[in-house]
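Predict structure. Chain length: 426.
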Amino acid sequence: MTDTIKTVVVIGLGYVGLPLAVRAKEKGYEVIGIERSEEKVDLINKGISPIEDEYLYENLPKFPIRATLHEKEIKKADVVLICVPTPVDAMYKPNIGPVKGACEMVARNMKKGTLVVLESTVNPGVSEDIVKPIFDEAGFKTGEDVFIAHCPERINPGDAMWNVTNIPRVVGAFTKRGLNIAVKFYESIIDGEIRSMKHIREAEACKVVENSFRDINIAFVNELAKSFDVLGIDVKDVIDGAATKPFAFMPHYPSCGIGGHCIPVDPYYLIEKAKQAGFDHKFLRTSRNINNSMPAYTVNKLQNSLNDLKMPLNGTNVGILGIAYKANVDDDRESPYYNIEKILKKFGANVHSFDPHIKKKSSCESLESILEKSEVIILITNHKEFSSVNGELLRKNNIKIIIDGKNSLDKKDIENNKVIYGGIGR
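Prediction complete.
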């Protein structure tokens, strides 16, 4: 723990903010969390994590933080960490509103000398064009009255190896003094490397580049999946084969769609910012279009298989396994489930759903019940609870078709049980 920093306030107790708050408490700081949801506040103050996360399950009861709805608590902070969402709207335009609102809340409550760190993912220039002017207008001089830094969040829900305690971070700030304070603070709570960036704009750019890289590579294999479908080649086998090369290849795998709070969102922040400056990110736009097309491609796979059986999609009972965007988490933000469900209903299918991690949004209460109600299945999320799905189970429940949106099931076993298997590029 640093000598001059005693109290940390975290704004936004979601998948990013809550683990960070608990980690800071674990390292000896007094921690106050500000959250808009009264239900979340009540649970956290009882030592119960509202998020499915092994780190939180283990550590929140041992290192309890104080959660509150009241912004006046910011006055006690030596450090404020802003961990609010940065979504896009229906037209994929970045929404910086939550960041502006959080900064305005901090500016009207903070004491002089506070370190304010924006962890939310933003495009390059937000700290200069939006964050700093808010504190300027409130009468705080950057580098003297307030130290503004940006340390873009890095979190990988469900990852047993990499979590808030050890993922390396990058930090940028407006002044050298502010950068030093921020780096020392993060070094006191995180075991991984803390890298100083020369400019705050560089720190902002790191996050959108990281996730745009992944988006581009996933788009490449998603396009390969469509191509190989036509060519009669199993894309999974090809990728696994290519991955035997020990250098210059990094395997990425196709799926029914990309979800989560980062990859489907962050590239748009860079696309829009560059567009304002007169540059067109054609590559990023193309990647986004390819990845956004995968839910429709998945439903089309089902439609084609139904056509082979002379069955209409209209009126067919379709069971969807999984609502979360990735395996073994309860996070459904930007999940391909929602687009797939929307398309299926548009064509008149009767849609049933089950996710053991998101039971409140599931229409069925168990795997057994959804199999009983369904004629065909689409697997969207490869939860461990779905590892029991095999050819025999599908045949016993009279499932005619399964579309494996994650290419995680045993194709040969399913086909040997006279069930039609459709994978993504398989």
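Summary: The longest strand covers residues 7-11.
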